[in-house]
From TrEMBL:
Family from the record: Belongs to the eIF-2B alpha/beta/delta subunits family. MtnA subfamily.
GO molecular function: S-methyl-5-thioribose-1-phosphate isomerase activity
Site location (Transition state stabilizer): 174
Protein name, entry field: Methylthioribose-1-phosphate isomerase
Species of the source: Morus notabilis
Keywords for this protein: Amino-acid biosynthesis, Cytoplasm, Isomerase, Methionine biosynthesis, Nucleus
Catalyzed chemical reaction(s): 5-(methylsulfanyl)-alpha-D-ribose 1-phosphate = 5-(methylsulfanyl)-D-ribulose 1-phosphate
EC number per UniProt: 5.3.1.23
Function statement: Catalyzes the interconversion of methylthioribose-1-phosphate (MTR-1-P) into methylthioribulose-1-phosphate (MTRu-1-P).
One BP term from GO: L-methionine salvage from methylthioadenosine
Main location: cytoplasm
Gene Ontology CC: cytoplasm; nucleus
Length: 371
């Protein structure tokens, strides 16, 4: 395992007044950081997928605005000017990418912090300071919740392995590791925890076309951590499960509805159908900030469609042309896996399971585990 000062896998490098984001479009061949001076830089870094992954998107957005207001001195506006300024910028940042709920969830919580601070503030900079403090806490909280997800997930898999096996091979999709979060990762955090506990036989990661988060980012993290791992083409997953080489599938989430329907990287729904067909347990690993209780089912989730260039060219649209000119393209970035295909949802408060139904009662779980 790499030493702690090694920040190869650190997507977000922050200290008060300065934010640098690892340009994930260039990984794994090049490690380059971009200086993010304000929310406009933050918005573009999210839209262009310099930073990606639901938790990392939310944290990078909040910290880009924290850097902006840290360096805004003097701000000669009033307390209510400072409040409106932050709310306007947060709404702007939320418009960068629509599917991952973590970003809008963070904006809602930060607006509550701002409004509470305005009750006691004596000047505008008190509002900005309250905002900066709250944004910085998101960084720490995310790592802590990912480590909890990892341990709950590993324990659950270990205790519920119905074939009594003591070593697991886990298939994952997209990138849900340190690069998609503030550290450790969600689904990849479960794989890390299984490896640390000595019960991981092998991790399999899909390429995750068209942006190749699996082959470029997940493979990079698994090799970095010396975790036994194999990369497969997205289209090879069915054959791998048919061979009985997968004990469980563990994926991340961008938005989980109240019934458990889950939006995640395009291709996740296919994996869930294949897992169901081959009786392979299929888990979603996600922090509670990825759950949107305002949606009763996945039908209401807005699915981002991205540039055709991502399919027509290599390197997520930045490389050479590979597809025939003139062909039409449909490039949804996410799909929705219905709750009836999901065995359990691994969160930082424990694993949500179904009781005698095809759906999850997440509202009940959140109420029971609140505080
Ligand atoms: O388009 P991306 O790379 O932002 O998509 C990322 C995913 O779908 C992840 O699985 C999800 O955001 C969870 S990241 C912990």
């Amino acid at each position: 395992m790499a030493s702690s000062q090694d920040n190869t896998l650190q997507a977000i490098c922050y200290k008060r007044g300065s934010l640098r984001l690892l340009d994930q479009r260039k990984l794994p061949l090049e490690t380059a950081y971009l200086d993010i001076r304000d929310s406009t830089d933050g918005w573009h870094a999210i839209k262009d997928m310099v930073v990606r992954g639901a938790p990392a998107i939310a944290i990078a957005a909040a910290l880009s605005l924290a850097v902006e207001v840290s360096n805004l001195d003097p701000f000669d506006g009033s307390i209510s000017d400072a409040v409106s300024y932050l709310i306007m910028k947060l709404d702007y940042l939320v418009s960068s990418r629509p599917t991952a709920v973590n970003l809008s969830d963070a904006a809602t919580k930060l607006k509550e912090v701002i409004s509470k601070a305005s009750d006691t503030a004596s000047e505008a900079k008190n509002i900005f300071q309250a905002f900066i403090d709250a944004a910085e806490i998101m960084l720490e909280d995310d790592v802590a919740s990912n480590k909890a997800i990892g341990s709950y997930g590993a324990d659950f898999l270990y205790r519920h392995a119905d074939d009594g096996s003591k070593k697991f091979s886990v298939l994952t999709h997209c990138n849900t590791g340190s690069l998609a979060t503030a550290g450790f990762g969600t689904a990849l955090g479960v794989i890390r925890a299984l490896h640390t506990q000595g019960v991981l036989k092998r991790a399999y990661c899909t390429e995750t076309r068209p942006f190749n988060q699996g082959s470029r980012l997940t493979a990079f993290e698994l090799v970095h951590d010396n975790i036994p791992a194999t990369l497969i083409a997205d289209s090879a997953a069915a054959a791998l499960m048919k061979d009985g080489r997968v004990s469980a599938v563990v994926v991340g989430a961008d938005r989980v509805a109240a019934n458990g329907d889950t939006a995640n990287k395009i291709g996740t729904y296919s994996l869930a159908l294949i897992a169901k067909h081959h009786n392979v347990p299929f888990f979603v690993a996600a922090p509670l900030t990825s759950i949107d209780l305002s949606l009763s089912s996945g039908q209401e989730i807005v699915i981002e469609e991205r540039s055709p260039k991502e399919l027509l060219h290599t390197r997520g649209g930045l490389g050479e042309q590979v597809a025939a000119s003139g062909i039409a393209v449909w490039n949804p970035a996410f799909d929705v896996t219905p709750a009836n295909l999901i065995s359990g949802i691994i969160t930082e408060k424990g694993v949500i399971t179904k009781v005698d139904t095809e759906e999850f009662d997440i509202k009940d779980f959140v109420q029971k585990t609140a505080g």
